[in-house]
Fold:
Amino acid sequence: MIHYTNMARHAGLVGILALLTNQGAVAADDNGQYGVRGAGLVNCAIYERERQARSPIYHMIAGWMDGYITGSNQHADDTYDVTSFESTEMLAAVVSENCKKNPDTPVFAILRTLIEQASEERLRTLSEKITVTMSDRSVLLYEEVLKRVQQRLIADGHYQGTVNGEFDSATREALKRFQQSNNLKATGFPDQVTLWRLLKSDS
Structure:
């Protein structure tokens, strides 16, 4: 299980990193081998150093991550988006936390494991994107993700409304109740920590 902190620590997530070198590839040669190019070859020690500095190298690696996810979406069967709600910064933080424990591991190996785990909750088909705005905060979420949020809020006893993929006042208040019950700041805003806690609580 991929570990996620700084945000995930506050969300109360626990887990351990799977053995990276034993993960299977989606597509490769007959021996299961394939070439890796670019920033993914950087090892975790370098990644951590550059992330702390927020250097151009770190931003290059983050861009490579987006490209890797796009490639995964393109070539994986029955997949529209393997990361249904996770931002690049959130994924970068997940990679960072695992890099601290595995300084000699290539960034690619950790991201690959993360994407394999995320694929269980992937979006299988195209979903409209909805802009959620509250005060000075705004986030773009798939309609399908908002439906999943409503379904989980119903299951947790916080929402009695319709599963319609709309971020209406009833959904916002239900999300606020969920946040309160989980020791999160009760804003009603679907931030990354809240979504991770709500949608990945069984992970």
About this structure: Residues 67 and 160 are 39 Å apart (CA to CA).
